[in-house]
Amino acid sequence: MQNYWNNTISFEEYLKIASQRLSNPDNPKDVEFKSYYELGIQRMDRTLKKFVIDEEQLHELKSKNFDGKILIISEAWCGDASATVPALVKFFEGQNEVKIFLRDSDTSLIDQFLTNGTQSIPKVIILDKDFKVKNSWGPRPKYGQELLLKYKANPEEYTKDQFYNDLRVYYSRNRGKDAIQEILELL
Q1: Strand partners, 133
Q2: Among 185, 68, 71, 64, CA closest to 125
Q3: Residues of 94-127 as b/e, b for ≥16 C-beta within 10 angstroms?
Q4: Superkingdom of the source (predicted)?
């Protein structure tokens, strides 16, 4: 894990790369994902402006005496990532070191943390101070996962558009609080 950690980037670099890929795509995937990058950047900017640390959650983090690191596998074009990664980074800022590993740069890391056989992101890897995996979380909070399962169970009745709308509204109102709480429970 330490080798992966050594190939991570800061959240600021993550935002910079996203903007570069949006304004100057240099491969077919970035061209194809241009609208996703645009939406992801907008969502991350909104989260950064509106996010407020929940003092009870911060107290819970401090009471756990967690001295490890937070490694987030992500890509800025991902809707789930754009809704949660900024909140996670802001919450742990000043408490624990948080770094981002770009999933598509080397899939050998995400392949160790598949979700139902898929490379779903974001994936949060909780590392102890010696870079040993303590736990993992992702790609979305339990409520978001419930919405996805509802859609998959009956896409004719609960359409893809309804699912995406409900998920977007949930993320907008929740602002990362559930994701943070679920990660706190794993520390």
Answers
A1: 127
A2: 71
A3: eebbbbbbbbeeeeebbeebeeeeebbbbbbbbb
A4: Bacteria
Measured on CA atoms in the order 145, 65, 96, 176, is the torsion positive or negative? positive
User: Whole-structure pTM over 0.85, yes or no?
Assistant: yes
Looking only at the bridges linking them, the beta strands covering 123-127 and 133-137 are antiparallel
Question: What would the pLDDT profile of 57-97 be if each residue is shown by its tens digit?
Answer: 999 999 999 999 999 999 999 999 999 999 999 999 999 99
Q: Which tens digit of pLDDT belongs to each residue from 5-15?
A: 999 999 999 99
